[in-house]
Each structure stands twice: as C-alpha cells, then as structure tokens.
Amino acid sequence: MLRGIDPILSPDLLQILRAMGHGDDIVIADANFPAEAMASRLVRLDGIDAPCVLQAVLSVMPLDNFVDDPAITMQIVGESESIPPVVERFQMVIDAVADNVAKIVAVERFDFYARARQAFAVVQTGERRLYGNIILKKGVVSPTDG
Questions:
Q1: How far apart are CA 48 and CA 127, in angstroms?
Q2: Is residue 124 annotated as a catalytic residue, yes or no?
Q3: Which residues form a coiled coil (predicted)?
Q4: Among 22, 88, 114, 141, which one carries the catalytic annotation?
Q5: What is the pLDDT of residues 81-114, one digit of tens each?
C-alpha cells in the first residue's frame, strides 16, 4: 500500500501508467470486451466497475490537451446518438477528476476496436453494463506537477 494512491491501482497498472508516454492510449474495458485478443499489455481488475477504475487512473494520469478527443467510447450499435448510462457516468468522472476536462467522443464499434488494438494497454474491469469501454489518451506531465 502507498499513501495518496488509490488502492484500485495495482502494481501492474501503476507500472503501465508510469511507462506510458504522452499520446499513448489506454483502454478501460468492460467484462465483455475481447481484451485477451486485443491487448499488447493486459491488466485484469475483475470485480471493479469501469467508472471506479477511470477515477483511479485519472487521479494519477493527465488527459492529453493537444487533441480534440482524449476520451473515446463506443457508439451503441444501431443507435449512434444514444448515450449509455455507464458513459454518462464516465463523463461525470472526467468532469470531476480530470485535470483536462474533455467531452467524451463516441465512435463506431469497429473504429473503437481498431484504436483499442493500437493501445499501449487494456485494463479489463468487472463492468457488466454494456458499452462500458473508454479509451484515454495520456497527456504531458509538466515539470510543475507534483
């Protein structure tokens, strides 16, 4: 255990977050996501919901402020304008925790999968709500950040 570090952040996940560079992507995925097939690096956090993992990650990792879409989710198949409740929760977490507050952008399912395959890592959660997946782009940690 460490002081000031959310206990959800396992040693493996902390190592991945530390190793990521500016512009690298990390996927926080639900329990249905094909993480084993897509991930170059995989961390499993079974039993923990995705918004809790998002909050923990954003407590130590900045969102990229050099791009228009540092937070991406998957559109509902056949209902591209609908926003799933879990994505509404993601936005609330970003609004409350992120140092670079950003509006979530939803992309088509296979576009999301293509981006996920290129991600630095995937964190598979125990999230059971459908469409509980988000890709985050890491920002710069400035010399003045604690």
A1: 7
A2: no
A3: none
A4: 22
A5: 999 999 999 999 999 999 989 999 999 999 999 9
